[in-house]
């Protein structure tokens, strides 16, 4: 495992991170014991970056990670937490709260659930349209001074917001979707981050399993977020799975799986880009780790670009209502 510095001012993180969201019901049922075993396997393989959100399973995910980290040294894991998304008792999404008081309250509950004294990277999950980003980041900066947070990150925001946030406090990374079929950051956001010395922690590198090589049409349970995602609907899913077939031909030549090629492609875009893999089972984690052994040549990258050209995905990455709340989409060129 290699380690890269996160941003200009951040910690050293493993070249691949573990996203824990799927362990708390977002993709349908998951197995608690297997989830914990997967976290242990990741740490044992040298992965030190664990990504979560306080709204994953309404706190379930943080408590699960706390259980997985019992008996280990605190510094063995770099915990990245998103906060601010509001949910109701039926698990519906009801907005976002980035007010300074909410920042500090959310952090207090997170520290308790994770059973830790500090969070390594703390970030608003989305931009609150009613609160200046300077106020939200300023509140986290207060928590940095107080020792409860080590570093500040951002999630799904556009260039103008990134610049405003970075003017308040150093930002170590932007967490944002980036994959072969979600390349919006290449239209300005990535350049802004590089100019400011901010890394990218890329989630959705397999587009929620769509380009993993394992996805089958109509496989999503009603409780699965993907049952409502445009890319998994009707003709869209057929077109997207055709892209996967084209990718499979390249993977077969390389003696790799489709998932390994897709992860390796994201990693090949720069050492300042850390793929976050959402494995919730040890076998999927092992497959993802195999991507570290896939060396893509210039010829391979050309073949991949030809198989899956930029902008070739059918359907948006979220529903229209959710897309409207993404600052990264609204001001992608800002």
Overview of this protein structure:
InterPro entries: Aldo-Keto_reductase, NAD(P)_OxRdtase_dom_sf, NADP_OxRdtase_dom. Pfam families: Aldo_ket_red. With 334 residues, the chain is an alpha/beta fold. It has one domain: NADP-dependent oxidoreductase domain (TIM Barrel, Alpha-Beta Barrel), CATH 3.20.20. It is built from twelve helices and twelve strands. The chain has helices at 32-44, 60-69, 100-114, 133-145, 159-166, 189-196, 234-254, 258-267, 282-289, 298-307, 320-324, 327-330, and strands at 3-5, 12-14, 17-19, 49-53, 78-83, 85-87, 93-96, 119-124, 149-155, 171-177, 199-203, 273-277. The strands form three sheets. The protein has an eight-stranded parallel β-barrel with strand order 3-4-5-8-9-10-11-12, surrounded by five helices. A two-stranded antiparallel ribbon has the order 1-2. A two-stranded antiparallel ribbon has the order 6-7. A hairpin with a 6-residue loop joins strand 1 (3-5) and strand 2 (12-14). Helix 7 (234-254) crosses helix 8. The protein is globular, with a radius of gyration of 19 Å. The mean pLDDT is 90.
pLDDT < 50 stretches: none
How much of the sequence is in beta strands?
Answer: 15-25%
Main beta-sheet strand count, sense and barrel state: 8 strands, parallel, barrel
Q: What structural class do you assign from the helix and strand content?
A: alpha/beta
Oligomer kind = single chain
Mean pLDDT: 90
Give the terminus-to-terminus CA distance: 36 Å
Anisotropy-based shape: globular
Helix/strand order: EEEHEHEEEHEHEHEHEHHEHHHH
Give Rg in angstroms. Answer: 19 Å
Helix content: 25-40%
Question: How many discrete domains?
Answer: 1
Q: Compute the number of helices.
A: 12
- Please tally the β strands and state the result: 12
CATH 4th-level superfamily? NADP-dependent oxidoreductase domain
CATH architecture: Alpha-Beta Barrel
> Would you tell me which CATH topology applies?
TIM Barrel
Protein name: Aryl-alcohol dehydrogenase-like predicted oxidoreductase
Domain NADP-dependent oxidoreductase: 15-307
Keywords: Oxidoreductase
InterPro entries: Aldo-Keto_reductase (IPR050791), NAD(P)_OxRdtase_dom_sf (IPR036812), NADP_OxRdtase_dom (IPR023210)
């Amino acid at each position: 495992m290699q380690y890269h510095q996160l941003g200009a001012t951040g910690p050293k993180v493993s070249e691949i991170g573990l996203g824990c969201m799927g362990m708390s019901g977002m993709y349908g049922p998951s197995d608690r014991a297997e989830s914990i075993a997967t976290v242990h396997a990741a740490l044992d393989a040298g992965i030190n970056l664990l990504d979560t959100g306080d709204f994953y399973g309404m706190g379930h995910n943080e408590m699960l990670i706390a259980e997985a980290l019992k008996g280990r040294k605190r510094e063995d894991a770099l915990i990245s937490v998103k906060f601010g998304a509001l949910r109701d008792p039926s698990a519906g999404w009801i907005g976002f709260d980035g007010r300074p008081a909410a920042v500090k309250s959310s952090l207090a509950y997170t520290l308790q659930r994770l059973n830790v004294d500090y969070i390594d990277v703390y970030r608003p999950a989305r931009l609150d349209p009613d609160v200046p980003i300077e106020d939200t980041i300023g509140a986290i900066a207060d928590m940095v001074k107080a020792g409860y947070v080590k570093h500040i990150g951002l999630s799904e925001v556009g260039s103008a917001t990134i610049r405003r946030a970075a003017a308040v406090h150093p930002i170590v990374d932007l967490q944002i979707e980036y994959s072969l079929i979600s390349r919006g950051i290449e239209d300005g956001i990535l350049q802004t981050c590089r100019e400011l010395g901010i890394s990218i922690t890329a989630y959705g590198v397999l587009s929620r399993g769509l380009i993993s090589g394992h996805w089958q049409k109509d496989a999503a349970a009603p409780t699965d977020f993907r049952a409502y995602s445009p890319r998994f609907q009707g003709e869209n899913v057929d077109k997207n799975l055709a892209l996967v077939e084209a990718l499979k031909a390249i993977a077969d030549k390389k003696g790799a799986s489709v998932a390994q090629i897709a992860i390796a492609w994201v990693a090949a875009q720069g050492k300042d880009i850390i793929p976050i893999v959402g494995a919730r089972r040890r076998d999927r984690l092992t497959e993802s780790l195999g991507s570290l052994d896939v060396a893509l040549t210039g010829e391979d990258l050309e073949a991949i670009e030809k198989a899956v050209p930029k902008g070739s995905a059918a359907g948006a990455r979220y529903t229209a209502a959710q897309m409207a709340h993404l600052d990264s989409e609204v001001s992608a060129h800002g």
